Amino acid sequence: MRAPTTSRELTDMASDPNDPRNRRRWPRLAVSVKVSGRWRARTGAEQDLEALLLWVSAGGAQLRCSAPVPANATVRFTLRLGRFQRFEPTGRVRWWRRIGEVRDLGVEFAEPIPRIGEYVRKQLEAREVSKGRFER
Predict the structure, then answer these.
(1) What is the pTM of this model?
(2) Are 105 and 62 in contact (CB under 8 A)?
(3) 105: which strand partners?
(4) Rounded distance, CA 5 to CA 19, Å?
(5) Measured between alpha carbons, how far is 84 from 48 in angstroms, rounded to an integer?
(6) pLDDT in tens, the chain (136 residues)
């Protein structure tokens, strides 16, 4: 596969997080799920975390919250995917960016969670099947 060269190709690649040219380890799924948990700063102090899960993969997640969670903080939260799947991942904040009054956080899980990866894969496959039905 050749590298993208035009601004259109770069934009298309950037807008699709599952494009193989993004070189992600795991495919990501866009979601909108409320999560709650705790975060711990390097000082050891713990604080509550209420956030919106925006993206999820076997290896991590992107959260949006109002708490000033810094990079390298440890995050632990509970999330539900699908009807019966509950997860309690722990991870480290690898990056954050401020968007107005909120922050987006990139959280890398302490260990990949294969069941989340399987859920993501099935959901992405189902979307492709649905997309194919409408393109005919």
Answers:
(1) 0.78
(2) yes
(3) 63, 96
(4) 15
(5) 25
(6) 455 555 455 444 444 555 666 567 889 999 999 999 999 988 888 999 999 999 999 999 999 999 999 999 999 999 988 887 899 999 999 999 999 999 999 999 999 999 999 999 999 998 887 766 555 5
